[in-house]
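Researcher: Before we compare anything, I want clean individual predictions. No alignment, no superposition, just each chain on its own. First chain goes here; please echo the sequence and then give the structure tokens.
Model: Echoing the first chain and its structure:
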Amino acid sequence: MALTNRYRSATGTGTIAALVLVLVFGSPWYADWAAANTNPDTAGGWFLRLLTWPAWRFDSDDSVQDVFASDLRAILVVVLTALFLFLLPGSQLARARGTLSQFFAGWASYVFAGAFAALLTTLFRTNPSLLGAFQAAGSGATYGLFVGWIIGIATLGGWRGRR
């Protein structure tokens, strides 16, 4: 039996899309490729490098605290995306599937997830500061703003809870 749209939830598809984005584009292999093969002074190069923001890694010359914070940030982006997709009422109150409210709720979820994940993981970095937390949250929100439309598209057409 094939799964149809009626079994697809907006929260589930958005979370899977976020997981794929973080696993693929946050991987050390993609990050190394983007750093070596893109020009940060072009729009395309900037965007391809931005995709690496929730980077995760297992080995580095950085301190253990910073590696842990980076890995935790990647995990929190996915977890918080699921939480915000579940909590944001736009997609749950929409009468019809595929409405703009569903798209914007998915997009906003990723913006909030990126900002909060960066803000929270700043506490685990070496020498955390309030300014560093604000700057990290700004980086996370920028990432969510320019990449979150992918999550918004993924949530289109999914059901929003109980019928």
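Researcher: Okay. Second chain, same rules.
Model: Second chain and its structure:
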Amino acid sequence: MGPILHSISTTVVVAEFILGNLSNGLIMVKNCIDWVTKGELSPMDQILIILAISRITLIWEVLFIWVKTQPISFITKEELKIAMFCTILSGHFNLWFATALSIFYLLRIANFSWQIFHYLKWRLKQLIVGVLLGSLAFLLANLIKTSITLEERFHQYGGNTTVNSVETEFALFSELFLFNTPMFSLTPFSLALISFLLLIFSLWKHRQNMQLNARGQGDPNTKAHTNAMKIIVSFLLLYATYILSLLTAWIAEKHHIELIQIICMITGLMYPSAHSLILILGNSKLKQTSLLILRHLGCRLEEQKIPTT
């Protein structure tokens, strides 16, 4: 890779890294402050805190892999194993808590006359806890499968303590993560997709009940449906793009197309960074806090520009 391309790609990765840390950090800090001051948090805010923590962790892991896959570096087997397990952990909680958030939006906003829907709606907290506890079975299976596969691959290297080939280490990491992720992410992704489709159906029923009058577009229920669907569909699209970028990067590595690998890494990093920004814009409390911070920074910059007499 040429020095100019390397500089551009590094700049973009760093920019996404900063954006991801700032957006997820705002979600985490604001909700933690509310937790301390008010003594309690809503289930949605609790989900947002853990989701933000998992995404910050994932962003740092992507940066670690980016640094370690540069030609001037090498990665030991222990570092690769730790990076792989940490990525699985953060990716697992990232995906399942985003799915739990989708279920939360569905049961809080949608309105159906089905008995099972009302049963789940009144037991929303227990349902979310049950879903997250059940997801631990997927996590355990993923960790065991990855551990077995890693040991088999390390055995193929003849017991060397380092994996000092950039192509080999990137191929091993991307291959393990790529082919394990769809297997263990199909269930939560399907749950989020079902939540989105049910929200569309609920909005359609609501619009029918409103008879498409002049107030149909502006009533609070319609706005709540629309906001929730934007958040869920952005999650689905960004996560699908994330998986697709992994697949494309793995294929590009096999054909030694370095530019495609870089583009895929930049595209994949959008998932934990951009979706958290969308969550902020869709949450009135977080949006107001971010605007206050931006106004404060703007005032500070204006004060610094004013020359002292």
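Researcher: What stands out in the second chain?
Model: The chain has a mean pLDDT of 78. Additionally, DSSP finds ten helices and two strands in the chain.
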